[in-house]
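Input structure tokens:
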């Protein structure tokens, strides 16, 4: 899911926001990660009221109970929390998010508006390859999954390797390129090695319904010119 923002605001001195991402974890689970910021200038403490100021990040599937990620707020300045977690949902369901703060006289929670997000479509597994015999030979391979990241986004997750088959006097690089029909090619580039692979996770933007194109290549041409394998084009279903 492209970056999502969830808010709670009661007054200028009592407010909270979450900014982050929600991703599918199979058809029946989801994960979230991001930053939760909260400020409360209410005079509460365990010593005086029996409870501290606190903030809740709440999440659920459309048909599953709310789960709460709760944090005490220290002092009257803005508190920042890095949070992550996940939950269950029915197959293909959207995910609901909201923020609560314990602002009632007795410490009960009030909640902001609910935000509904589609965490992304199912993984589409692909392999993209490139081979060259130039300068000792190089093999580049990407193995991984691509998926929709909401209707106007995509995500790429997997491993890419660029392996030199023999010693070369030239420093070589390998790259993973990605684009859609309406966007320019973007590249993630690494140094060629004798072995091993690099894990990648990439988010990108697209127009709704567009396919994703993936390509891999290496700087094996004359004077380090880039050469590429065949383009792999993949549809990105929402469900």
């Amino acid at each position: 899911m492209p970056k999502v923002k969830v808010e709670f605001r009661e007054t200028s001195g009592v407010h909270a926001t979450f900014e982050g991402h929600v991703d599918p974890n199979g058809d029946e689970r989801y994960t979230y990660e991001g930053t939760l910021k909260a400020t409360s200038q209410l005079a509460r403490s365990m010593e005086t009221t029996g409870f501290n100021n606190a903030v809740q990040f709440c999440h659920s599937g459309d048909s599953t109970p709310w789960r709460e990620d709760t944090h005490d707020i220290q002092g009257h300045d803005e508190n920042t929390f890095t949070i992550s977690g996940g939950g269950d949902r029915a197959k293909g369901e959207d995910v609901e998010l909201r923020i609560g703060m314990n602002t009632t006289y007795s410490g009960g929670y009030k909640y902001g508006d609910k935000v509904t997000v589609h965490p992304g479509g199912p993984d589409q597994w692909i392999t993209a390859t490139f081979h060259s015999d130039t300068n000792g030979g190089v093999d580049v391979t990407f193995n991984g999954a691509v998926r929709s990241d909401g209707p106007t986004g995509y995500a790429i997750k997997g491993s890419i390797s660029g392996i030199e088959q023999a010693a070369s006097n030239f420093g070589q690089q390998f790259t993973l390129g990605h684009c859609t029909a309406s966007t320019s090619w973007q590249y993630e580039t690494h140094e060629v090695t004798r072995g091993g692979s690099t894990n990648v996770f990439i988010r990108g933007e697209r127009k709704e319904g567009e396919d994703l194109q993936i390509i891999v290549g290496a700087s094996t041409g004359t004077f380090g010119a880039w050469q590429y394998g065949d383009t792999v084009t993949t549809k990105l279903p929402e469900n």
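Residues 124-234 form a domain with the Immunoglobulin-like fold (CATH 2.60.40). The radius of gyration is 23 Å.
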